[in-house]
Amino acid sequence: MSSSDQYKRQIMNDLAQGNTESLDEAPANPAKDYQNFDDFAQRSTHEERRHLFGKSFNHESVPPSQMEPELQKAIAQIKPDERGNVARSFFKHLKQRGLDERHLEQQLGLQSHNPNHMSADDVSKLASFTYHNHPDIFHEVLAEQPGIMKFISNPLVGAALGAIASKWFGGHK
Fold first, then answer.
1. What is the pLDDT of residues 33-72, one digit of tens each?
2. Is residue 81 part of a domain?
3. How many domains does the chain have?
4. Which residue of 79, 87, 88, 173 lies most exposed, with the fewest beta carbons within 10 A?
5. Cβ(101)–Cβ(91) under 8 Å?
6. Domain of 114?
7. pLDDT of 80-98, one tens digit each?
8. Is 140 a domain residue?
9. 49 touches 142 (CB < 8 A)
10. Which of 22-26, 51-55, 90-94, 141-145 shows the highest mean pLDDT?
11. Is residue 7 part of a domain?
12. 152: in domain
């Protein structure tokens, strides 16, 4: 049995058993229950989002082979101005690591290094590169631009996020 199959089985078992263990750093304010993802994206703090996405999206829980197609679909669904904001965030953080936009444009085969002119495919390549090579930056950008997460549809990704969210938010109904 592959590790992916084992992982899927473990998630389904946890969900079926109503696993309610709490995370180490649950929100201190129980009145801050969120009604849905949009409510979470608007009212949560940057730190809460970074913590949640960091726990949910790592190479052990969601391998790059599963994350890449989901990123492509999600980025294709966001508005062009939001897509530009996502690209700007990636470039900003990657530049802090010494990676120049023009160099990334050439290395990744992007049509442009200007976030306003990048296609969905370009932003997907940039996101995949970051997920593979700089997962901490990937989590930081998700925390800054949480809107992209509502378009992730892979059941495995959704199960990982849902399991953590239900544990963190105390299974709010």
1. 666 666 666 777 767 777 666 666 666 667 778 778 888 8
2. yes
3. 1
4. 173
5. yes
6. 36-168
7. 999 999 999 999 999 999 9
8. yes
9. yes
10. 90-94
11. no
12. yes
